[in-house]
């Protein structure tokens, strides 16, 4: 999958070519790893396409002091994932080089951290300022979804009154220690709460652990969630998490997209001068930035050529947390585009991200500079179809 990252950075986190890495590749690997937050700073994760390759790697890695923590057969992605403990003193870049040298077909990477992309604003105002639905042409009574949807996020508080009528299937990938679920509950509310998507099955993968150094999840957990979504026949997935480039996630998202999945992701809140954040910056992921009621871009939104659409994401009122709360961030904007795709009849006839992106672009209101731009993308999409 083509990715939007600086050309001078190495692709050591990507699929290795046959043979060994060069010294310059290893140097660039170290540059990639430096300063990036990890969910686990002592392990190395590997994706493989066959049992034979996995067995070969296990034998060779064990001889070199790597200890297997766990192995997963990912039937949805048709991959095998292995998590190894690195020998003492072995850095992430060296471990990546080791793994891909021992098994050239392997994709190896450190377990980068992907964090939620929303900030809480003021508590309930009376009356609350509500503008987001109107901005995208969303009817007050909501729209029927044409397919099941998924969210990869934190723990959803399904007992929230706003979600009492929703069909939600949950699965925990946090290792048994899910973090507090306000963020995920808000995302679920924006998708299947009152006046949102109707008659929708929501699959919620809880990947955010209370044991991570920040409020986020590792690449490994995101991959497990994607695999479960594919096994559950979920075609549309919302991810309001963002982090650095990671080849493991690159490979997994590419596999999911090849199997008909559409992924919508928040572009991230690291600011306009930040490097592209992933998974939004993957070429086959629909990347969403946030705008306010006046169609001004969210001040902390990441910018770049990969941005596809703008959606309401500044002071969006959500009733399911704290008896009413304003939220801001690209996390908040992504579900609006996900809901538009889910309710659009065109989605049923297309399984290609490029076609869906082009179709949604046709209804988008151009904002900012004329044409597609690195701040607003194609613009603000609007509902143009009748809702049941």
Keywords:
18 strands, alpha/beta, 388 residues, single chain, 10 helices, globular
What fraction of the residues are assigned to beta strands by DSSP? 15-25%
Average pLDDT number: 87
Q: Would you list the SSEs in sequence order as H and E?
A: HEHEEHEEHEEEHEEEHEEHEEEEEHHH
Which structural category do the helix and sheet elements fall into? Answer: alpha/beta
| Largest beta sheet: strand ordering | 8-10-7-12-14-15-16
Low-confidence stretches: 4-34
User: What is the total tally of β strands?
Assistant: 18
| Basic shape | globular
The biggest beta sheet is recorded as: 7 strands, parallel
Fraction of helical residues: 25-40%
Distance between the termini: 37 Å
What is the count of helical runs?
10
Q: In brief, what are we looking at here?
A:
With 388 residues, the protein is of the alpha/beta class. 27% of the residues lie in helices and 24% in strands.
Topology:
Blueprint: H1 23-33, E1 38-48, H2 51-63, E2 67-74, E3 79-85, H3 92-102, E4 107-116, E5 119-123, H4 132-135, E6 143-144, E7 149-153, E8 167-172, H5 182-192, E9 197-198, E10 201-206, E11 216-218, H6 219-231, E12 236-239, E13 241-242, H7 247-258, E14 262-266, E15 286-291, E16 309-312, E17 316-318, E18 325-328, H8 330-343, H9 346-349, H10 353-362
Parallel strand pairs: 6-9, 7-10, 7-12, 8-10, 12-14, 14-15, 15-16
Antiparallel strand pairs: 1-3, 1-4, 2-3, 4-11, 4-13, 5-18, 17-18
